[in-house]
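Render this sequence as a predicted structure.
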Amino acid sequence: MARNKLKILIAGGGIGGITALLALRQRGIEAELFEQAEAFRQVGAGLQVSNNATRVLRTLGLGDALARVTYYPEGRDYRAWDTGDRLYYTPLGQRAEARFGAPYYTSHRADLLDVLLGGLGREGFRLGARIERFEQNADSVTVTLADGGTATGDILIGADGIHSTVRGQMFGKELPRYTGNVAWRGLVPAERVAHLDVAKVTGVWMGPNRSIVQYYVAAGRTFNWIGISRSEQPARESWLAEGRVEDALAEYSGWHDTIRTIIRETPKLLRQALYDREPLPDWQIGRVVLLGDAAHPMMPFYAQGAAQSIEDAYVLAGCLAASQDDPVAALSRYVKLRQPRTAWMQGLARREEELYQMTDAATIAERNARMRTNRIPESANFPPEQERLYGYDAEAVLHA
């Protein structure tokens, strides 16, 4: 008897969940996404869509739409918090696109979500549909929604974020680890910072116990910044948690005038706690598997949260397409392919925090001397971790 086509259930309508739906659809696999909000949430601030992620989005047919709403930085520029001296530089722009075969963009989260939704159309998802629990047997998995409704499929993908309900049922409720850092986020109309002559780069400012990353988004119309500072007092972990400009200025007292001016020109500030989790030993139980922040939330120091979710989604869709007669084995292959990379990325992001925010004067002087060997834009090279990170080709991984 011929086997029915696969049906995949997806919990969560964020970047990873929607990318998974698009990637499955491209491969001819039926999928249905369940998002608990009444509308896809157009919130958040800036994010970086690195070469490894744009390669996937281009493959999904979203390259032109992405290019229209993002910004194309020329490089990543690391500077000292007080003097503004350049300490290090890595190329982006055309050099990175030539090296890694795809562009590197900076984007507002809402713009990236719009691009994904543009590819989605009007079907394949349910809004206002919160998955409360799942049950599985040897042949299928069934989810129960908050309204009492149910849906059954072959596989359930938990793409429901750091507070994942799916993960909680799989492995028990476990609080994320407070990293000891809070994030200040702001968006500034570009004309308000035009007089600062801020370069067309992703700027990284490194200081004791604090750092700031800044770049243009929205095709250059908006300037985005995120300041991370060590704090024993965690803030709310919410995209909607507001902070005060005067508090941010006090936090960044003594910093370069460019930074303090950007903070003063910010019309609305968010202050959020940063959490991550230890890498899980597995992401799969039977017909249920995790993706993105539900599986591997990470600190933002390498700007890879969204990009790793996009990679996950594409590799998972490819594994399912290749093993439609044994989807449970497909999930195992997906975990085996993805888990080492995301665990490496989680560790790299944690190590980068110490690089950015170290406090010992002698260690800082040693770091700065080491970094200055790669500070001239025209001759700067890609460090090995960037080669490994941005050169990742999800399609090639599936065929290795």
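Summary. The chain has 13 helices and 19 strands. The chain has one domain: 7-175+277-398.
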